[in-house]
User: What shape does this take?
Amino acid sequence: MRLSNTLTQITGGGSDGWELFIKARKMIAEGRDVTELTIGEHDIKTDTRILEAMHGAALGGATGYAMVPGIDPLRTAVAERLTHRTGVRTALDNVLITAGGQAALFAAFRAALDAGDSALYIDPYYATYPGTIRSVGGVPVAVTAPAENGFQPDIDALDKAAATSGAKALLINSPNNPTGAVYTRDTLERLAQIAHKHDLIVISDEVYDTQVWEGAHLSIRALEGMAERTFVVGSMSKSHAMTGSRVGWLVGPAHAMGHVTNLLTNTNYGVAGFTQQAALFALGLGETFEEEIAAPFKRRRALAQAALKGQNALRLSPPSGAMYLMLDIRASGLTGDAFADRLLTERAIAVMPGESFGTAAAGHVRVAMTIPDAPFEAALKEMVAFGATLA
Ligand code: PLP
Assistant: This one.
């Protein structure tokens, strides 16, 4: 079988950065007691009330084909949520329901790029970004967000990269995975200027919008003149602990959404009606529920600040948002890869090497705050002890 180049080159060749994760999973399968701090998934399951709503919807007959753009009540609820949270008037016809934020990212790039077009994205980055760009035949162009700059993007570098690559799109993610950076108003305004100057479609991944610990979440779509050139990617995965249900959304200009619906018709053909109804029920639980889902990460962030105080081996810049800590481990003299590998082998703690998120996170490791408080705190103390042996 001769497969397409677009398909076989999705990973861009070489390492996809997940070796450590695979090694940890292998150790666990062999019966080793590994503390798993790699992946962005809550340590709680989807709330029983949401599952009951899903069950009820399925028994009530929502098992046939659902409307491809999404069921109207859910599109309306998402529109109201965005209107309320971002201040941008959003209507049903600005919203399409997708199989998680990931399918919305794919649809957005399919909407923005033709084969061979370049798309800018910010390094450090969420693992799927370059692959998603390549999967529509696009060319990913990374622009750095240096650690020294609090992982806010280097706007001058972005300006230059936009000019030299002739990019059609810019992908941003705030609150950010893996860095925890929340883009400031100033950063977003400067990003918007770049978008206007180079006529870029902006794809704004806001799946962590309910997890902000410092500052406030501002959607770039809310800045003047940006709604017409922005797609927002959202999801129930992180805000409602519904990762496996695969419900997310793409929000954008109404005229674009008609075309994107044609893409959805010819790919997923809609999202299961009973999961959409469960998502509708979950949104109805309101902001208090979203705060409850986010609370453990805020708590563990504070635990980490305390556990990492008074030592220099591991440097924490407390994340402003999302469910991860980025630790600067350069005092150890190791790369993030080597540090993570030794931490796993010698202390049975699995964290993600910064290098798996791009070059700007080299010399760091990402710690997911996704295990209960007591073992989380114990793991951090163990990491500090390990770091001290190297520093
Ligand atoms: N965007 C970011 C930044 C993420 O971290 C994730 C998942 O970890 C996603 C998008 C995709 O999430 P989902 O497809 O579950 O909505």
Summary: The mean pLDDT is 96. The first strand starts at residue 35 and ends at 36. Residues 40, 100-102, 126, 173, 177, 205, 207, 235, 237, 243, 248 surround pyridoxal-5'-phosphate (CB under 6 Å). The radius of gyration is 21 Å.
